[in-house]
Design brief:
The complex is a heterotrimer of chains A (222), B (223) and C (245). Chain A is an all-alpha fold and 222 residues long. Chain A contains ten helices and no strands. The radius of gyration of chain A is 18 Å and the shape is globular. Chain B has a domain of 154 residues: Rossmann fold. Classes of the chains: A mainly alpha (222), B alpha/beta (223), C mainly alpha (245).
């Protein structure tokens, strides 16, 4: 059986489980909304929130809520003891890894769709430069999902992983965070210079899209 | 003498700075129903993990048809050795039927709906449960579904950890019938269990003590 | 028959740490000479005054951290590709010593910054990079020490150390573009006099020698722990066999 078909099988299974335990998606969305609110309380000055906070609030909210879903990414495997079974396919651990990245992307994508308009609304900003912003969000989410899935998979059997995951994930994805915030800020201000940052994010993604499945397979090899 | 597809030689396994298994030899024969018993902490579960290649022994080696496990591809291993652990190896938010079809497709031995239904019937899972989520099953029903997954894998070596967990008397009867059917078809079955009634039906009974296996079969016959 | 890891660890030699002691002597002498040179021969900065002299040990620590953490990533990669107790022990030693020097860096940096830029912390690229990388390295060390000698912990830690290497490079690029005002001493012609150059290299060589003393010592320590563990296992095997007889 091809790797593609195995990946599809595993992805279909994850989507089915996600649809049946919709609470998880709901809670993640609630968390993201709450995150934006908390930031608003933190940054609100004299009754009006400043537009300048939009990029930071947007990206930090996305990062925080992505770690919420990452901590639950392998929950179904752990509960039923199926991790060993889905790791041993004819294409190795790659189908498992790719399917989990896609699930995580779906989760964070949905969160983004909710959070982006909300941040603009709460912070009285007007959406300008939709092209670069969309590109940065796409690159940022792909990179975060890939590195996040790697960290989550590596830490499955590790004690205290709830604490360790952000400790390892946040420094590693710092380039995406910095790049995303910069691109969003520049685009909202209608300024030039987003291309370099997008290139940096693209390089990050290319590197980790290749390296992560390999490291995952290597680290979990017998 | 039946062939021995799975052989372990000189196995040693340490937990911290203490050996739990030491100088352990084991041949798992085709068509044989083999039971291993032992006290809590004697190393039964660790032995099963070593036999299926999930953990590395501190010393010694395990071979599948004379090929060391470390040289066998994991997907081939998954086709040859089926494992039932304490957690049943099922997705709790999928139905019994979906679980069965998923895992058989993953190892490249897909089942049709009818085949899967027939299998669940065979392990005695009530019809109405086939399309319910495993989360709502009782422990015994989960165990039966896990057993169906093992049968569906068509593996020729079964490693079962406490297979009678949660089963009612009827379930244990079904279990021993299924195990016997499997060995009659040439499957090698190794089960870790304390269940005396089940062990009584074994072809061979080994007791794990002081890190080694002791043959209890003859003593049992004497009783 | 595969060789057992226990038998391998039992052969870890117990030697006098001659190399470490020799390096320690060289390192101490070099550092003393460097201190003396910095104190007596190098000029004070017109603007910064004496505080400029932090620079010599600051850069030396940066080199030691960079080399230590890079070597840790490389040895982790080696261990991932071909598991080997020595590669693992080296990776851990390099990682820990790298973190020691990154802490030196993160202490001396702000001290300099207070004088030079009027504040202890600026979001200057190299400072930010060092902080992020240090946090990553400490997390990996924590992971390793938490999981003891477990097989999984070792491989997971190694994978993370490998992951950290390309990430660090990209973090470096990102924080550099992010804006900063670090003195470009190395690239530019910041070192004016021959005396300063001598002081600089004395400090670098001294600190790197001292760093290698730490690595060698820690490596020996880990290897001896592995041997001690193997001996405990041998004893356990002996006791178990005796109980059977």
């Amino acid at each position: 059986m091809t790797a593609l078909r195995l990946t599809w099988l595993l992805l279909k299974k994850d989507l089915r489980i996600a649809a049946r335990s919709r609470e998880m998606l709901g809670f993640t969305l609630l968390f993201a909304v709450l995150c934006v609110l908390v930031f608003a309380f933190g940054f609100l000055q004299e009754g009006t929130a400043a537009e300048g906070y939009v990029p930071g609030v947007l990206w930090v909210t996305l990062l925080f809520s992505s770690s919420v879903s990452l901590l639950r990414l392998f929950a179904a495997e752990e509960e039923g003891g199926t991790l060993e079974l889905v790791s041993a396919t004819s294409a190795g651990t790659v189908p498992l890894f790719v399917s989990k990245v896609l699930v995580q992307l779906l989760f964070t994508g949905l969160v983004t769709v909710v959070v982006l308009p909300m941040v603009l609304l709460f912070f009285n900003a007007e959406l300008r430069g939709i092209g670069p912003i969309a590109a940065s969000l796409l690159l940022g989410l792909i990179g975060q999902a890939t590195v996040g899935t790697l960290c989550s998979a590596l830490l499955v059997h590790v004690r205290l992983r709830e604490v360790l995951l952000p400790l390892v994930l946040y420094p590693t994805v710092a380039p995406l965070l910095i790049g995303g915030v910069k691109v969003t800020a520049l685009a909202l201000a209608g300024a030039e210079g987003t291309r370099d940052w997008l290139t940096l994010m693209l390089v990050f993604d290319l590197l980790f899209v290749v390296a992560s499945p390999w490291l995952h397979g290597r680290a979990l090899a017998r | 003498m039946a062939s021995a597809p799975l052989t372990a030689r000189g196995i040693a396994w340490a937990a911290g700075d203490r050996f739990v298994l030491l100088d352990l030899d084991l041949d798992v024969h085709s068509g044989e129903l083999l039971f291993i018993s032992g006290h809590n902490g004697a190393g039964k579960t660790s032995l099963l993990a070593i036999l299926r290649g999930a953990s590395q022994a501190t010393q010694g080696s395990v071979a599948l048809n004379s090929v060391p496990l470390s040289e066998v591809a994991t997907d081939y291993l998954a086709k040859r050795i089926a494992v039932l652990q304490h957690r049943p190896g099922l997705y709790f938010d999928l139905t019994g039927l979906e679980n069965l079809q998923l895992f058989s497709s993953l190892i490249g031995r897909p089942l049709t709906d009818t085949e899967a239904e027939a299998l669940l019937d065979r392990v005695g899972l009530p019809r109405e449960a086939h399309h319910r989520r495993v989360r709502h099953y009782s422990r015994g029903m989960q165990q039966r579904t896990g057993l169906a997954r093992i049968i569906a894998s068509k593996a020729d070596i079964w490693l079962l950890d406490e297979p009678s967990t949660g089963l009612d008397p009827g379930g244990r009867e079904t279990l021993s019938t299924l195990l016997r059917q499997a060995t009659d078809a040439g499957t090698a079955v190794l089960a870790v269990s304390h269940d005396q009634a089940l062990i009584a039906k074994a072809d061979r009974h080994l007791h794990l003590h002081d890190g080694r296996l002791h043959d209890m079969t003859t003593q049992q016959e004497a009783l | 028959m595969q060789t057992s890891p226990t038998a391998d660890a039992l052969r870890v030699p117990i030697r006098r740490p001659v190399a470490a002691l020799l390096l320690l002597a060289i390192g101490l002498v070099t550092i003393e000479v460097a201190l003396w040179w910095i104190a007596t021969r190098t000029p004070s900065d017109i603007v910064l005054g004496l505080s400029q002299k932090i620079f010599y040990f600051h850069v030396g620590s940066a080199f030691a951290m960079l080399l230590g953490l890079s070597a840790a990533s490389i040895m982790s990669l080696v261990d991932l590709l071909r598991p080997d107790d020595r590669a693992d022990a080296l990776a851990r030693s390099f990682l820990e010593v790298g973190v020691v020097f990154s802490l030196c860096l993160l202490t001396s940096g702000p001290l300099w910054a207070r004088k030079a830029w009027g504040m202890y912390w600026t979001w200057e690229p190299r400072l930010t990079l060092s902080l992020l990388v240090t946090l990553l390295a400490i997390s990996v060390i924590a992971l390793r020490s938490m999981s003891g000698d477990s097989h999984t912990g070792r491989r997971v830690g190694a994978a993370m150390a490998v992951m950290a290497a390309p990430a660090s490079y990209l973090i470096h690029v990102a924080v550099k573009w992010w804006g900063g005002n670090h003195p470009q001493v190395i690239q530019g012609g910041g070192i004016q006099s021959a005396d300063m150059r001598i002081a600089f290299w004395l400090a670098v060589v001294g600190l790197l020698t001292f760093a290698s003393v730490l690595v060698v010592t820690r490596y020996r320590d880990i290897r001896l722990q592995q041997r001690a563990q193997a001996l405990r296992l041998t004893l356990s095997a002996h006791q178990l066999r005796q109980r059977r007889a």
